[in-house]
Amino acid sequence: MKFPNISHILLLTSVVWILTGPPTLSAQVSPTQPNIILIFVDDMGYGDPGCYGGQLVPTPNIDALAASGLRFTQGYSISPVCGPSRVGLLSGLQPSRMGVYWNPDMGAVRMPEGHPTLPEALRSAGYTTGLVGKWNLNNPSWNPMPARNYFNYCEAVMVWEGDYWPDEQGRYKGVDDRNYGSSKQSGLWGPNRAGDEYLTDRLSRHACEFIAEQKDNPFFLMFAYNAPHSPLQGKRAHLNQLKHIQSEALKLYASMVIAVDEGVGRVLKTLEAEGLREKTLILFISDNGPALTRFKGMPPSWPRGELLGSTAGLRGNKGTFYEGGIRVPFILNRPAVLTEPRVNHSPITTLDLYPTLCAVAGTKPRPHTQLDGLDLSPLILEQAHLPDRRLLWFSGDSGAVRDGNWKFYFSPKDGASLFKLDQDPGETNDRSAEAPEMAAQLAAYIEDWREQIPPPVTPRKPR
What we know:
By secondary structure, the chain is α/β, with parallel strands linked by helices. It is built from eleven helices and 16 strands. The model is unreliable at 1-31 (pLDDT under 50).
């Protein structure tokens, strides 16, 4: 595989890491290996949790993570859609390095030769690894990367999306089967039969079972809710809490958010009951911004294009490289180290998780492993300053690059724009004419990147 050789600090840092491994402060963070739980939700908006200003429904358990942890105000997913977002997180690489530009590329994903995924790196460090929920790095019709190859424990695995209520045979379409997705039936409230278990509750149960089964060995749990991703299917038990919401689609979405928050509470209670709370680092992150009601299976009476959830006023939504599509809730909680709540405004991305979690685990990536993120463990210890760097999001004909507070955005629909995020977080004022040199510099950076990475692994049909 051909890797770019672009001259800026992020990639220079990556080159250093190829030779030495990323810097680590693990010895200062903790003398022992903490348990790690990565709660990775699907399509939750930046402004949905109460700790980010959310007002749709209360999220007391998510808020509790922020109230005793580190909340990032400029945390980003590396993609505005599900598949590449997970490729970036689990590989530590900008997805386009592997020819992964958009969701259609997921059926042909391959890790670079000799490049371990994050769970493999942690397993090599002595961690028991578990996956509950969405995997999304394979396609069941081809299946080059089954989750069981990377985790010691797998339960309720979804490639893409799953039904939240079981069918008459007790099966959840899209979960632990060869279906590429769910039934795509939105508008359902359940249960229809006594004893039916809501999928989000099932995932929470499996996560708690995994936690309770661990003894002295450290564990890494990737707890990947598919909620609040479509299909929109909710719990009747929540209806009394949703009377203030008029839209049926948004009411269902809100029920799905409540169920996620309830699940987070169950995990916290299990950790306390098992005496593991102080020994566990918890991350809560969304894979991209909130979706619009434009998916299959919607009742005909529903309005199209309604935003599900909140971006807290940021422009855009899932599928766009505006802030609303890529800026996400990003919370880190570690009681043994974070003794009081903190808020950090450094721009970070999910690419930073691979080197950070390796550092926290007291290990280094395998020699010659190239990574595109930074070790954030200094931010856990104190309000450290990260090195200056450029952040890149890329899907071929659309994307963005951020340099300091400058953000260059481009897409076939909207053209190219330059924004100053500290003054204009809503990306309403194109500053290209005021700062032509910066616009030209970042546009050239994009072209340099484009020329040196492989084409999409799934060829595109001519338009």
